[in-house]
């Protein structure tokens, strides 16, 4: 299946997912004291690489919040799968579930089918990381087709600190339409 990629500078799609509490979270909108949003899409409970990445990411949640970036992770897992996964996770940031195939396609994610029923019972997204700015536009996109190719979190945090400094006046990159 081919994917339609989101383009930097475009408005991030208005996608909602469910939290374990039952409330909806809007992936495109930051809340509270933050004005940017970081959406981390992960494969699901069946992926130990994703579990490790999410646990590592938790160590950056406070620093992200201090620079005004709200963090949320999301997968296509069911509520029951997220409950099971929560036992392996050591995270303080919200994790949502229930991404639909249409939503995965809207975000331009690569989608995989399970190799067997032991892996999972649904098609699932490959990793993606999106930074949505205060205007609701896609500032940064990182999309992979495997779980072991993701952004270095130290470098990402450092870059976000620099990017959000108004003195740097750094534009959204990758917008050339030729």
Automatic annotation (TrEMBL):
Molecular function in Gene Ontology: antioxidant activity; oxidoreductase activity
Native organism taxonomy: Bacteria, Pseudomonadati, Pseudomonadota, Gammaproteobacteria, Oceanospirillales
Pfam name, any one: AhpC-TSA
Domain Thioredoxin as annotated: residue spans: 6-165
InterPro entries: AhpC/TSA, Thioredoxin-like_sf, Thioredoxin_domain
Domain of life, source organism: Bacteria
CDD domains in UniProt: PRX_like2
Protein name per UniProt: Peroxiredoxin
């Amino acid at each position: 299946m081919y994917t339609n990629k989101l383009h930097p500078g475009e408005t991030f799609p208005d996608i909602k997912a469910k939290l374990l509490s039952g409330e909806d979270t809007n992936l495109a909108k930051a809340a509270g004291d933050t004005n940017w949003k970081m959406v981390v899409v992960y494969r699901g409970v069946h992926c130990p690489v994703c579990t490790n990445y999410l646990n590592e990411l938790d160590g950056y949640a406070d620093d992200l919040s201090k620079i005004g970036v709200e963090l949320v992770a999301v997968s296509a897992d069911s509520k029951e799968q997220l409950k099971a996964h929560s036992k392996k996770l050591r995270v303080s940031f919200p994790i949502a579930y229930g991404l639909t195939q249409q939503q995965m396609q809207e975000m331009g994610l690569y989608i995989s089918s399970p190799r067997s029923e032991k892996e999972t019972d649904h098609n699932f997204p490959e990793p993606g990381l999106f930074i949505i700015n205060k205007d609701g536009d896609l500032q940064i996109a990182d999309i992979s087709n495997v779980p072991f190719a993701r952004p270095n979190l130290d470098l990402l945090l450092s870059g976000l600190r620099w990017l959000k400094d108004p003195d740097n006046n750094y534009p959204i990159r990758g917008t050339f339409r030729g």
